[in-house]
Request: fold
Amino acid sequence: MVSVMSRTTKVLVQGITGAQGQFHTRAMLDYGTKVVAGVTPGKGGEHVHGVPVFNSVASAVKKTRANASCVFVPARFAMDAVLETLESPQVKLICLITEHIPVHDAMRMVSIARAKGVRIVGPNCPGVAVPGVGKIGIMPETIFRQGSVGVVSRSGTLTYEIVNALSEAKIGQSTIVGIGGDPVSGTNFLDMLEFFQKDRRTESVVLVGEIGGNAEEAAAAFIKRRVKKPVVAYIAGRVAPPGKTMGHAGAIISGKSGTAASKIQALEAVGVKVADRPGAVPELLP
Amino acid sequence: MEGGVHLNLLEYRGKEIFARYGLRVPKGKVVTSPEELEGAPFPAVLKVQIGTGGRGKAGGVKFANSLEEAKPLIPQLMALTIKGYKVRKVLVAEKLEIAQEVYVGIVLDRLNRCPVILATAMGGMEVEDVPPDKMFKAPIDPLVGLRPYHLREMSAFLAFPKDIAVQIEGIVETLWKIYRELDCTLIEVNPTAITPKGEVYCADAKVVIDNDALFRHAEFTHEPEDIPPLEAKAKEEGIAFVQLDGDIGVIANGAGLTMATLDMLSRFGGRPAIFLDLGGTDDPEKVKACFRLMDEAKPSKIFLNIFGGITKCDTVAQGVTKVIEEENIKIPLVARIKGRNEDAAREILAKAGIEAETSFEKAAEKVVALKGV
Reply:
């Protein structure tokens, strides 16, 4: 399996001329990410922080050989932006930062991407980072530290919190992936656990989950069967009331399902150490 | 079953959609008073229309053979409040003779990222309680859609006589069409009722529409929901806000961090009063709106926990200091600031006399120990 991103990753930013697109393009460039092109229909020929803007993904890819995309396009136009990118076979990774994308749109995009062998990370996610190499998306680069812990998380800011705690404890990270808080995600815990198990630069894994759905229970079953590397988890929402959506579309306890207790129990049953607060994660790593 | 943060249509509205798509639903009339009963079908089942399940157990379902019998029941039903939901409407529906109850539904399989058709001959009961070997499940590839072979497999599993099977297949085919066209995240018909004559009716309707897709379905609006007024206001303003029973108002950015903040306060013996997810924002006005809402909720103290990414710490600090001055907010505040532009934020807050913490745990301990108003 190829790494999530490497020094040869060339990033295209869709929606680069918007406020978020501009701001995070700057931050990605400053961290050393090769941002080679931007796309905003109608703004072709302009430049953002020296990055050329194109009217279409096809023209941007042809000219710059971009092989990854970071999408900041608003929700109702996001599916079109992603489908356009999926027409360019060179692009193998799409980080979909946008939130509030309809679930049916997410299912279609993800299905097409999987059929084409393209990895979508998101929607509603902070993106990916390989400390020392680059980052795609919106994670604050000040918290990264190079190392061997793979981090996968359903939450954005909670990822920062935990990565920061790791770095402050002088524990570096190999790859950080925020898979997003929506009910349908292009990349899920299982995909990343499989990746980290195979990834030679990763020695242990931190899994950050939250209430809602059964992704953590499925991750526990997968860990039991396939993951030999140590896994430490943190689950948010221990005191969340049932029946209330807690900010993320996917974070809701429905009846008896989706509780933090059920997830913690499933993970501990397969030998995963579960931290009771973000700051305890570093202490539990080997 | 998975519903998400969505528009949960009341039964009668779901049945209106079913009827529009040509599905057979029992005749019915929605009433709010006995005077409106004229023209309702009898014998009838009287069902309160509320946004939660378990109506029957809570006394929200009655039977009446005639209009005269129904008259005194309507005010009784209208007076009910079930699980915090006040009854505002009653559906008076034709009482069917039912030989057998079946369940059919389309739910979202988050793990496999696709819809799943569910069907069981054990209708009427809670779906969670149906043994797995009695439940037909067909995952549907969103790119392929529902195909005739899915329906054939379903019929083979349910093993009804041909004339019944054809009707159930027709219902599922139509439900799939509704699911796709209306951006549903969930459709359930429980029960799907088979009469002694062999006619199949959609005797209930649970239709949940994706909130994030409402921009392409202008016909749907939220009913006046029985959520606390402040939660309703937050919803209007697009702020994720949940009222809890403690005394600490929590504002954090991002759902996961906000949840983790509630957990952390509880760990130190604190009791959260408000969950307010500021989300990813770069707009000081949004920050101000959040604080105004928090001020209205009147917690005895506020914990602001920001880890900047897409949300810049200095933007938050600007919004916070302005709104505290403008609205003269007196509720004591503990701020924890970390991440993008944190130094600038710390400076802005310091000028306003707010000393921002950097450690999540220290800040949480501090707010729990703080004397509130």
The CA atoms of residues 141 and 356 of chain B lie 50 Å apart. The first strand of chain B starts at residue 7 and ends at 9. The mean pLDDT of chain B is 92. The radius of gyration of chain B is 26 Å.
